[in-house]
Specification:
about 400 residues, Heat Shock Protein 90
């Protein structure tokens, strides 16, 4: 599956990682404020037309539109953006149009320069549909709404407007709403592309760290064997006196014993990585990505990790570091990564910052990095992950694997 297909799925399923959620927040806040201005204009025109309207139906239709605008402002400024309020606003605009024949008192007719008060909300309703509905439904709405208004505007209850003017208004409504909706969806898609690329880069970096750790361990063992054997051979070549020959023989016996010991040593296989080398590569990876974290390492017992465990822990650590950089705030913050391993073949990784903190219970389900990479990824390899944080008190992500996990 290519990146474009993944991005399309990410957008259509309303799944958001950081960049996409940030872009949705910017769009949602800006759009909600624009709707407030539109709502003010609707109030002005509705006040003038109120004597000609059925108050009950007007209260239903107009109240629904105002409710959707207020709800969008509250939701998009104080919570994560959802598509629900876009959809509600689009429905309210369509409801105004459909119920207008019932909302207008019987026998009321207007001159050709009249326009129903909801006319100024039509384009915004179409854009709300473009932002909230799936592409096919949004396209149908954006096409159908101007067509329905054209029919209404050329009738005797819609102002008996000039056909050419009504057609012009409908076409402009369609073109403007369709163009802006397409542009905003393109921005969303690019944000999704960036999220996917970032996730792939993180996974590749973690895999590279694990592979480098395996190569480093093999180099260490090969170097030790090489030096021991080479020293014994060199001593044997230069042994002339009985004492020198005895030393050479002792070195040869020692080299043989060491070789036997290396043969019995549990070396990392293709599916294993030494914890010392894993910590070294992980620390190096973090330092390459950012200079805002201090990395400390303590190994009280070296052992080999399954490669899948190293990969999952590496992914989770990098994701926790990334979350801290994105969400903890800026300024004079302390950030640490502590890597610990014990001789009972257990380890603990802690990512700590003194930033703004948060309430873990209020983390949205759409936060894939925390839920999928940190929690689920570590738990799938037999580890444990938990987060300690409060607003204003920083945050710490703790990853554990081994005997007590």
């Amino acid at each position: 599956m290519n990146v474009q297909t993944q991005a399309a799925r990410l957008t259509s399923q309303r799944v958001r990682t950081f960049t996409a959620r940030r872009m949705d927040s910017i769009i949602g806040r800006t759009y909600s404020l624009a709707l407030v201005l539109t709502g003010v204009e609707m109030v002005s025109h509705a006040t003038e037309q109120l004597p000609f309207l059925n108050p009950w139906i007007f209260a239903l239709t107009f109240g629904f539109t105002v409710f959707s605008i207020i709800g969008m402002v509250v939701r998009h400024w104080f919570h994560d953006v959802t598509n629900t309020w876009y959809i509600l606003h689009a429905v309210s605009v369509a409801l105004n149009l459909v119920l207008w024949p019932l909302e207008l008192n019987p026998g009321v007719h207007f001159n050709s320069d009249f326009a129903p008060y909801f006319f100024w909300s039509l384009g915004w309703g179409a854009m709300s549909a473009g932002l909230g509905l799936r592409p096919l439904l949004a396209g149908a709405y954006i096409v159908a709404l101007p067509m329905a208004f054209f029919v209404l505007q050329t009738s005797n209850i819609g102002g008996v407007g000039d056909v050419h003017l009504a057609l012009q208004n409908s076409i402009y409504t369609f073109l403007i709403s369709a163009s802006i909706s397409a542009l905003l969806q393109l921005v969303r898609r690019r944000a999704a592309d960036q999220d996917i690329a970032s996730e792939k880069a993180t996974a590749a970096a973690s895999a590279a760290a694990a592979a480098n750790a395996i190569a480093r361990e093999r180099t260490r063992l090969d170097g030790m064997v090489h030096n021991q054997v080479l020293g014994a051979l060199n001593a044997a070549i230069n042994a002339y006196s009985p004492e020198q020959k005895k030393v050479a023989a002792d070195l040869a016996r020692g080299a043989i014993q060491r070789l036997e010991g290396y043969g019995a040593e549990k070396r990392p296989t293709e599916d294993q990585v030494n914890v010392v080398d894993f910590f070294a590569e992980l620390g190096s990876l973090i330092q390459q990505e950012t200079d805002q974290f201090q990395v400390s390492t303590s190994v009280e017992g070296a052992f080999n990790l399954p490669l899948e465990v190293a990969t999952a822990l590496g992914d989770a650590t990098v994701q926790a570091v990334t979350n801290s950089l994105l969400h903890a705030g800026s300024g004079k913050l302390e950030r640490h990564v502590k890597l610990r391993a014990w001789d009972d073949q257990s380890l603990k990784i802690t990512v700590v910052d003194t930033g703004r903190g948060f309430r873990p219970s209020r983390v949205p389900k759409s936060r894939l990095g925390m839920r999928r990479i940190i929690f689920r990824g570590v738990e799938q390899v037999g580890g444990r992950a938990h987060i300690n944080s409060r607003p204003g008190e920083g945050a710490s992500v703790i990853l554990e694997w081994g005997c007590d996990a």
